[in-house]
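Figure 6 in text form: structure in, sequence out.
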């Protein structure tokens, strides 16, 4: 998969290719990442990429031309046609289904804005989709672009070794994760649930599923709203709730 990012801070975005799953995906050639800086596409002495908003108001707006030229070069860099995504507070809220859809594409161009945003004519001329990563205010689109890159990279074939749990990722199953434990077996008087020490795999799987269902019901009931639990899961959840009451 190829991802091109149009950003004023390529050094920030390129951090994803330096470590972890994303770094390995780039190293293995599974993910091809390139950054394009609009400032390299300015023609004035001050390399101006922003200007004051028509209609007045606080802050600055990113100019069309430098962005347009950067996107043009990004598009030309590969023959594969890209989906052009503007990371924006006005975008649809990203979730795992959206990530899976983006990760299945051969190519993305992600536009990361700064200042108050980008000139609307650029959105009209170049942008296919707008995506937000949540209802909170960031200083720019780069971290959002890096979130998309990370979430997509994990889903690319070969990006995760078998030891990784991408497939069981709670957001893949639509449930929150169960609690996890590792050595020491007792820490400050706190032990590990006996079932996990017994090596009885069916029992362990049952316990983990029950915890996932129970925690989802307790912390994120919205994730259960659109979900019909089968009989086995309903029984596990009832058991979890009964144990809470005890
Ligand atoms: O570029 C991003 N943010 C920079 C940014 C933040 C705030 C404003 C100012 N908005 C004024 C306003 N809001 C409502 C009415 N008027 C403009 C730009 C961004 C990209 S994806 C994403 N996902 C989650 N959060 C984010 O901030 C982002």
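Output sequence:
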């Amino acid at each position: 998969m190829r991802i091109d990012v149009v950003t004023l801070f390529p050094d920030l975005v390129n951090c994803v290719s330096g470590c972890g799953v994303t770094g390995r995906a780039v190293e293995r050639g599974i993910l091809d990442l390139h950054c394009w800086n609009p400032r390299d596409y300015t023609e004035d002495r001050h390399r101006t990429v922003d200007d004051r908003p028509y209609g007045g108001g606080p802050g600055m707006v990113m100019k069309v031309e430098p962005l347009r030229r950067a996107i043009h070069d990004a598009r030309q860099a590969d023959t594969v046609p890209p989906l052009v995504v503007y990371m924006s507070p006005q975008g649809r809220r990203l979730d795992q289904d959206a990530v899976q859809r983006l990760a299945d594409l051969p190519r993305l161009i992600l536009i990361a804005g700064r200042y108050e945003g980008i000139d609307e004519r650029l959105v009209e001329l170049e942008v296919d989709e707008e995506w937000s990563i949540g209802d909170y205010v960031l200083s720019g689109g780069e971290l959002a672009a890096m979130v998309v890159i990370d979430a997509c990279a994990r889903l690319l074939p070969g990006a995760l070794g078998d030891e990784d749990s991408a497939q069981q990722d709670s957001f893949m199953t639509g449930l929150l994760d169960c609690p996890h434990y590792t050595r020491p077996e007792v820490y400050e008087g706190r032990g590990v649930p006996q079932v996990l020490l017994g090596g009885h795999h069916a029992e362990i799987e049952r316990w983990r599923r029950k915890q996932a269902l129970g925690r989802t019901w307790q912390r994120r009931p919205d994730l259960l709203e659109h979900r019909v639990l089968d009989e086995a899961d309903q029984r596990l959840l009832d058991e979890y709730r009964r144990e809470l009451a005890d």
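Caption detail: The radius of gyration is 23 Å.
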